[in-house]
Amino acid sequence: MGKTKRLDKQNFLKKHPFCCFCGGTKPAEEIDHVPGRVFFRDRQWPDGYIFPACIECNRATRYEEKVIALLCRFNNSNETEIDHAEFEKMAREVARHDPEFISDIRPLSANETRRFLRDHNIEKPTTITTAEIPIVKIGDIVNKSVRKFGRKLFLALWFKHTGMALPKSGAMRIVWMTNASPAIDDTALIAMFNTLNGIPPIIKNSRHLHDQFTYRYVVTATGDGAGFFVWFRQSFGLLCTMAVDKSMIKNDPTNIEVPF
Ligand SMILES: [Zn+2]
Fold it and tell me: With the CA atoms of 29, 33, 35 and 36 taken in that order, what torsion angle do they form, in degrees rounded to the nearest 10?
């Protein structure tokens, strides 16, 4: 690390002395990028998305990030050559190191795709065959990873927009979807979605990165609750409600609490 970078890190940690991922009481020792660099084309991550982390939290989701970054690239409508090369490289790496993930994500068969299009009232584009339509089916291993990944993502966004770490009493409720998921039928989440009026700029060196990562959010006037809808590459979305006290979140066995 160069001298300027080391100083930047020291200053950042001086300003934000506690890890924002485990309740805000453990000293931060590292700077974490959320979403990780692996989510961005050519590893160009947006300005302002760095967070104070203890060593344990910084490393907690490495495994999950790699796989979810791959998942986000399954359907990229404006694919560049860089995107394509990155996708191939990531897919090879995941296949080599985490083969169980690959077996947990599989493309729908032509018959399943046909049924999917019919159930969703979508007309097949005439330029491609049914088998070429990139819809994937996902199992439990991926589901668990998404929850772990989502927990960290929303703790970071909470910190960014409230200026505080979510305390250990806090909790969140996450619903996630791919472009192949059925519509959400959770009325509480849909009502929350309609209140999201914050749209932050996602910029690196004055270039917009919204095609890769974008979100809307709202923080309650009292600062004790927030809602987010995050979308990666038109492929993968997460909707989240969170609060400083778990009793404020609709009770559900899938809710995620701060300690993990
Ligand atoms: Zn931590």
Answer: -100
